[in-house]
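Task: encode each sequence below as structure tokens.

Item 1
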Amino acid sequence: MLELYHHGSPVYAAKVRMVLAEKDMAWTGHYIDLLKGEQFAPDYLKLNPKALVPTLVDGGSIIGESTVICEYLDHIHSGTPLRPAKAVETARMRNWTKFIDEFVHPMCAA
């Protein structure tokens, strides 16, 4: 069972939840209240030493960073892929996800 440690507001966590929904994957959510500082709890820091959300746990594997989580979910789930089949199109997609991570997401932060 996939477990997602997340918070409701950050766009990073929202995009992982969108991939889970798009791929129709079952998952269990663990809400991390960032306003209460739950991301700094010792148990959570064992999962994600950066104290960031989201974090995905798949069995014994722990995956952080929203774009990496989305690519992982697309890779492990059969069915309609979210990434293009052609290498050049995948490269273009990855340029866009890099742009979102490096420029758009920081603009959404306080």
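Item 2
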Amino acid sequence: MENQNFTTSILVEQSPTEVFKAINNPRAWWSEQIDGNTDKLNDEWSYRFDNSHRCKMKITQMIPDKKVVWRVEDNYFKFTKDPTEWTGNEITFEIFKQGKQTQLVFTQIGLVPTYECYNVCCDAWTGFIQKSLRTLIATGTGELKWYLNS
């Protein structure tokens, strides 16, 4: 069976080091509503979006300039029958050199079409990776409010 985990990727001009650094600064590309450290192996931190979504993350793998993995330790969605849909998922960022460019492959292992939040979450991640993180990597400033213009 084909892998149904959500994945998206970008290709940028910057180095793997610059991509790695940007990933580890989710306050600049995902949300300013993050509490805790987000840039070292075993760091634990929490994210929230208003009263509709909150989660606790743990960095379980970190290979400089190559890979970062966040494990969703706990999750709450206000808008799904099962508010814990993401709990236990792994969010991976894999970095590959492609000639003079760098490819970033984002995958949420466990975010599959059977999830009630699948379409909403896929749209959100696509925007955060394709717009906000890409802009952070290229310019040093993410587009945290990209979804307001969508």
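Check on item 2: The radius of gyration is 15 Å. DSSP finds three helices and seven strands in the chain.
End of task.
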